[in-house]
Design a protein that fits this description.
With 559 residues, the chain is of the alpha+beta class. The chain is built from 21 helices and 12 strands. The chain is globular and about 70 Å long. The protein starts with a helix and ends in an 11-residue tail after the last helix.
């Protein structure tokens, strides 16, 4: 820590104006904090996601499933800090400067005086009282969480959708190129010539409140000195370690883009990962590069469900209902039952053509539709390749952001899927990547067997070229990943104890094993004999109903 403070002191002596401007900008960011409705809503969504994960683990006994101690603590903490925020209970002044504690104090004061808040808090406490019989049953808790998410979503819809920056952040409102030459966030994530760095000319006057990344984010517009407008989302993130893990994967994908640009076969197919810039402003806040036209696959699904007048989480509830019915007869759900559930959902709730229907409605012009579909296909091929080869966390529908103006696809919150106990990369999943019935139907059979498969093969061949550079990148990134995993494991086993550094030899062995697993998968995908390739087998496995029906319903295998 003393090294960091020494560097900061040196920088302050060398660049006093730039540093004070940067501190001013970061200090003002805390005024973009969520209000209490939005904060509680985000935490309830996190709680619901945790409960769905536990429900799928305990699907062998649906009616008997109870909440885990970890989830129980999370909900109890949520009740006790209702409207204040779990992250804000610890002393904020240690994290931020005075502006942050002032903004929090003001918000807490306004919240405490709000009679609606007082009434909701008492109802919330009554609903989540775990001394009531049956309240620890998992599916009872899921229903309560869904009820409160609906209530708070209705509340947030009534809130203003934008505000003026000068009302809250005078420093940002007055900032210009004359104040200091500060580059726009994320300019230094990839090296380039200093002439080409874009600097902040102005912060635009209006800030919008948008529902993205499972939270109510503030969209800030920055005008660069080149005249272009750059939208950024100010996103509140509760978990510091998880945020850094996601940024590590994004940086790896950025570096992999360098290889895709240099190869003939990948360049001619315009294969390129869409990686948004993500910059941590504080332990709980990030600036994320945004595209105003981007929409998550889950939001598309919710829109179409609303048009059909069905609840978007009805298929998940139906899945567990069917399992409970079968288990009530004293038998376990067979593979055929799971297949029947998937068929029933597709027949009555989420038809195969839902995504195609949305695309045709959004792009009535045939040229636009064709171009969007082509770009979407090759982008999904790259995302699927990364998920399978790098052993990343499963691609949920709320992680996939589709850019409606181009067809580009960026995936937020990808992390290495490392087993918490053994530290090995998880290689056992029913489907290798996301190619669900709706996605396959939209891309058409020709798109799946043609551009999708060809793009995956050419990208895999690009990465296994005999340069050995990809292994070096993987070693560097996975080393940090395993050090983080080791620290997390130590914190869980000995909370509060001084962390011990990971043994060097163990670290090298684990990283080498992980790099070996990734390289093997890459080489398998890169080999093909005529029209036959391993990719075709994976595509068939990803699109197979036998495999899809074994997936967690919260992953939306029908979408």
């Amino acid at each position: 820590m003393w090294r960091c403070s020494r560097i900061m002191h040196m920088q302050r002596d060398l660049h006093p104006t730039i540093l004070s401007s940067l501190e001013g900008i970061v200090d003002q960011m805390v005024w973009f904090r969520e209000n209490w409705y939005e904060e509680v809503l985000r935490q309830l969504r996190q709680g619901l996601a945790k409960c769905y994960a536990v429900a799928f683990e305990n699907r062998g006994a649906v009616t008997e499933a109870t909440i885990t101690p970890h989830t129980l603590n999370f909900v109890k903490k949520l009740v006790s800090t209702f409207g204040v925020g779990i992250e804000n209970v610890s002393s904020v002044s240690t994290t931020f400067s005075s502006a942050a504690s002032e903004s929090l104090a003001r918000r807490a004061q306004a919240t405490a005086q709000d009679p609606v808040f007082q009434k909701m808090k008492s109802q919330f406490t009554t609903d989540f009282d775990f001394s009531v019989p049956g309240s620890t049953k998992l599916h009872n808790l899921i229903n309560k969480l869904k009820k409160w998410i609906k209530i708070l979503e209705a509340k947030t819809k009534l809130l203003p959708k934008s505000f003026l920056i000068e009302e809250k952040c005078r420093f940002l409102s007055n900032f210009s190129l004359n104040t200091a030459e500060v580059e726009i966030p994320g300019e230094f994530l990839l090296p380039k010539h200093s002439h080409y760095y874009v600097r902040i000319a102005r912060f635009m006057p209006r800030v919008e409140i948008v529902q993205k990344h499972n939270t109510a984010a503030r969209r800030l517009y920055i005008r660069g000195h080149n005249g272009k407008i750059y939208p950024y989302l100010v996103v509140n993130d509760a978990c510091l370690t998880e945020s850094r893990r996601e940024e590590r994967v994004l940086q790896l994908l950025r570096m992999m883009n360098h290889f895709l640009e240099k190869q003939k076969e990948t360049s001619r197919r315009l294969l390129y990962f869409t990686v948004p810039r993500v910059v941590a402003v504080s332990p709980q806040m990030r600036l994320v590069e945004d595209n105003c036209t981007s929409i998550s696959l889950l939001d598309i699904y919710k829109q179409r469900c609303a048009k059909r007048s069905i609840e978007h989480d009805q298929p998940i509830a139906r899945y567990y209902e069917r399992l409970a019915t079968v288990q009530a007869r004293g038998s376990q759900a067979s593979h055929q039952v799971l297949r029947d559930v998937l068929k029933e959902v597709q027949a009555n709730m989420v038809p195969r053509g839902l995504l195609k229907e949305w695309a045709m409605h959004t792009f009535p012009d045939a040229t636009d539709y064709w171009t969007f579909r082509k770009t979407f296909t090759i982008q999904l091929a790259l995302a699927g390749l990364a998920e399978f080869v790098l052993h990343l966390s499963r691609m949920n529908s709320d992680m996939m952001y589709v850019h409606q103006d181009s067809g580009f696809l960026n995936v937020s919150y990808f992390k290495f899927d490392i087993d918490d106990q053994t530290g090995e990369l998880d290689a056992n999943r029913p489907v290798p990547f996301r190619l669900t019935p709706n996605v396959a139907d939209f891309m058409s059979a020709t798109g799946v067997t043609g551009p999708l498969t060809a793009s995956m093969v050419s990208a895999a061949r690009c990465f296994v070229q005999p340069q050995y550079q990809i292994q070096s990148l993987l070693r560097a990134v996975l080393r940090d990943e395993y050090i983080t995993w080791h620290k997390k494991k130590q914190d869980e086993s000995n909370p509060g104890a001084q962390p011990v550094d990971m043994d060097g030899e163990l670290l090298v062995n684990m990283v080498t094993k992980a790099v070996g697993a990734i390289t093997t998968r890459l080489q398998n995908l890169a080999t093909f004999d005529g029209a036959e390739s391993r990719v075709s087998t994976l595509v068939a496995a990803a699109n197979s109903h036998d495999n899809l029906c074994r997936m967690d319903p919260a992953w939306h295998p029908w979408l």
